[in-house]
Amino acid sequence: MTERTLVLIKPDGVARRHVGEILSRIERKGLDIVALELRTATEEVAAAHYAEHEGKPFYPGLIEFITARPLVAAVLEGPRAIAAFRQLAGGTDPVEKAVPGSIRGDLGLDAGENLVHGSDSVESAEREIALWFPALAGS
Ligand code: IDP
């Protein structure tokens, strides 16, 4: 089943010059890039994106991190794209959860600055694509 997923290469991934490496892994996996843009997230977009985490201890630092520097936002498309990218990304904590071979497992150390985001369900993907790429929503 073809799906779309919203992916972010977070500001640490851009600052550490891993954009090419991460896009290369996405392309090698076989996912299509249907939207791609370097931008700096506003507070409004960041807060809406991470609304489910509001109130958690790491939330203020997360919003600060995501809005402070440019990130790459993308929409990927392909069979089971949501799970496929989550597999490429690895678990949230790059040391405790992400396995070697995954983006976070190979390139990350920090549970907050963990390089990438990928939608976790069809509903999240629809919501996040509408937030980051409104022109694509519903297409
Ligand atoms: P995910 O990005 O693997 O889907 P979520 O649990 O949805 O993980 O958390 C969203 C983001 O919030 C994480 O990618 C990470 O940047 C940040 N985060 C989650 N848990 C922690 C934590 O315990 N400490 C610091 N940051 C965290």
Automatic annotation (TrEMBL):
Entry-linked InterPro entries: NDK-like_dom, NDK-like_dom_sf, Nucleoside_diP_kinase, Nucleoside_diP_kinase_AS
Domain Nucleoside diphosphate kinase-like: 2-138
Cellular localisation: Cytoplasm
CC annotations in GO: cytoplasm
Any one GO MF annotation of this record: ATP binding
GO biological process: CTP biosynthetic process; GTP biosynthetic process; UTP biosynthetic process
Catalytic site: H117 (pros-phosphohistidine intermediate)
Residues that coordinate or bind ATP: K10, F58, R86, T92, R104, N114
Keywords for the protein's UniProt record, in alphabetical order: ATP-binding, Cytoplasm, Endonuclease, Hydrolase, Kinase, Magnesium, Metal-binding, Nuclease, Nucleotide metabolism, Nucleotide-binding, Phosphoprotein, Transferase
Cofactor(s) this protein cannot do without: Mg(2+)
Reaction equation(s) it catalyzes: a 2'-deoxyribonucleoside 5'-diphosphate + ATP = a 2'-deoxyribonucleoside 5'-triphosphate + ADP; a ribonucleoside 5'-diphosphate + ATP = a ribonucleoside 5'-triphosphate + ADP
Record keyword Phosphoprotein present: yes
EC number: 2.7.4.6
Main location per the UniProt record: cytoplasm
Keyword hit for rRNA-binding: no
Complex formation: Homohexamer. Homotetramer.
Function: Major role in the synthesis of nucleoside triphosphates other than ATP. The ATP gamma phosphate is transferred to the NDP beta phosphate via a ping-pong mechanism, using a phosphorylated active-site intermediate.
Family: Belongs to the NDK family.
NCBIfam families registered for this protein in UniProt: PRK00668.1
Cross-referenced HAMAP family: NDP_kinase (MF_00451)
Record-given protein name: Nucleoside diphosphate kinase
Biological source species: Rhodococcus ruber BKS 20-38
